[in-house]
Amino acid sequence: MRLALYQPDIAGNVGTILRLAACFGAAVDIIEPCGFPFSDRALRRAGMDYADSAPVARHADWNAFRAACSGRIVLLTTRAELTTVNAVFDPGDTLLLGSEGAGVPDHVHGVADIRVRIPMRLGFRSLNVAVAAGIALAEAMRQTGTLPDD
Q1: pLDDT per residue over 90-120, tens digit each?
Q2: pTM of the prediction?
Q3: Could you tell me the domains of the chain?
Q4: Nearest to 104 by CA among 62, 63, 71, 143
């Protein structure tokens, strides 16, 4: 199971996602450009000492990521009809999250193998990207029997 971040804007969110990935044993793909220097202090602070334990692959752009990506791309988007609870995940899936400010462009949206959203109360639009990553990763790993043991 992998998490992919499309042109992330906020170093603290990326650091939190790296910490999440380390704790859950997931790899992370960073699709550049980022909206911050990748060595940013906020990234290190949010990831704490866990961030070094998450396998990270950096990709110069969307095309480089696509060339390296195997398995299905599962896009988390507010525009999906299918929820994370109703989706059927595979262990080789890559969960793709858009940038905090813009999400993903239509051409990226269009190539996703499946699109899912996190169910939430009416009138609420979205969650913080790191929170969304945690919810989706936990559900995908629960379904596939790949959650880490204590």
Answers
A1: 999 999 999 998 999 999 999 999 999 999 9
A2: 0.93
A3: 2-144 (3.40.1280.10)
A4: 62
